[in-house]
Design brief:
The chain is an all-alpha fold. The protein is built from four helices and no strands. The relative contact order is 0.16.
Length: about 100
């Protein structure tokens, strides 16, 4: 395996693109799971409904794969990652604040 420092700039950028895409996909899965697990809890308050709306917006965010500028595509990927991570954080904050013991 070639070490990152021994790779060309092109290879390094491609690896970063791939890692960012994998993180984006993992966060999508985490959002789907979290929303499903705490769906009933979220429907109990207006704040919870707003969290669901933000989560669904983050789920629907996408990358314009027709974008020819690789830096812009990577920036879009990072924007989606940021939006999804923030939604997960907001959802977890809400659940820790409002969850009711069974």
């Amino acid at each position: 395996m070639v070490h990152f420092a021994e790779m060309t700039d092109e290879e390094r950028f491609a690896r970063l693109e791939h890692k960012a895409a994998e993180i984006r996909k993992l966060l999508f899965g985490a959002l789907l799971l979290a929303k499903e697990i705490w769906k009933e809890e979220l429907f109990r308050t207006q704040e919870g409904l707003e969290i669901i709306e933000a989560v669904e917006k983050a789920e629907d965010s996408f990358i314009d794969k027709s974008q020819s500028d690789r830096f812009k595509r990577l920036e879009q990927t990072l924007d989606v990652i940021n939006q999804r991570a923030k939604s997960i954080f907001d959802l977890m904050s809400y659940v820790s604040k409002y969850s009711r013991p069974d």
